[in-house]
Amino acid sequence: MKRKFWNWVKNEGDPGISRTLFLNGEISDETWYGDEVTPQIFKDELYADSGDITVWINSPGGDVFAAAQIYNMLRDYAGHVTVKIDGLAASAASVIAVAGDTVQVSPVAMMMIHNPATMAIGNTKDMEAAIAMLNEVKESILNAYVDKTGLSRNKLSKLMDDETWFNAKKAVELGFADEILFSKEEKAPAKKKPDEGEDPEEGKEDGDDDEKEKKFPFKQQAMMFSGKHAAQSFMNKVSVVKPQNQVPVDQLQKRLNLLRH
Predict the structure, then answer these.
(1) CA angle at 52 for the pair 34 and 29, rounded to the nearest 5°
(2) Would you say residue 184 has pLDDT above 50?
(3) Count of CB atoms situated within 10 Å of the CB of 162
(4) What pLDDT was estimated at residue 190?
(5) CB-side exposure of 199: number of CA atoms within 13 Å?
(6) CA distances from 76 to 43, 52, 69, 99, 132 (A)
(7) Predicted pLDDT at 242
(8) For the stretch 11-47, what's the b/e string if a residue is b when 16 or more beta carbons lie within 10 angstroms of its beta carbon?
(9) pTM score, two decimals?
(10) Which of 17, 69, 154, 228 has a CA 20 to 30 Å removed from the CA of 81?
(11) What are the structural domains, with CATH classification, of the chain?
(12) Residues 6+ apart with CB under 8 A from 90
């Protein structure tokens, strides 16, 4: 059955009808389990009608090329696109998120950016080709991030190298989002784009970068935030019995026998 992830809503104060699309789940070039978001499914729903749209995103990411297609659809869409980050916009989903004309993030949502990854087999030339491809993919992702945030490629590249997670406030501060949902106070400051040929880092003291780095979001491995890891960690804790607290079964049986008499 074809997945449908939009519905019609009437905007408050607007006599017209607009649409809200829900981009929930993994992003993939094809569907295997029926719950993936594919470019073809998204395209069918996006162009089912015209007018302004709101796209709610809650996704761990997925296929970077599928995400690139959806990013392009949103950037090319004739109506105004408002993106609202619901719970998570990580990895490839963060690329789609920055395609919105207006990007809002829930105060309890998270974003994550990191370097692209792939699997490759073969000889030395095959590995070198895979590395070259990943480097180019990273550059393409940086194009989207730079266009939205106005930050330098070097700064964004470092954030991707470190696999960086940030909350709603940091998303606004860094320029990935324009404002925090349900709040009228947190809005992104107006960004002045550098003139052509001007280095955005020029004129900054070294100390400024160090100070700004301290204000950047925490950096942590994605494994610490995966549901699988959390479940495994929990099972490891509950399955391990400390020797000092362990009571042999035969002793428990003896105690029960004594109680019976």
Answers:
(1) 25
(2) yes
(3) 17
(4) 58
(5) 6
(6) 12, 13, 11, 9, 29
(7) 47
(8) eeeeeeebbbbbbbbbbbeebeeeebbbbebbeebbe
(9) 0.69
(10) 154
(11) 6-232 (3.90.226.10)
(12) 59, 60, 61, 110, 111, 112, 113, 222
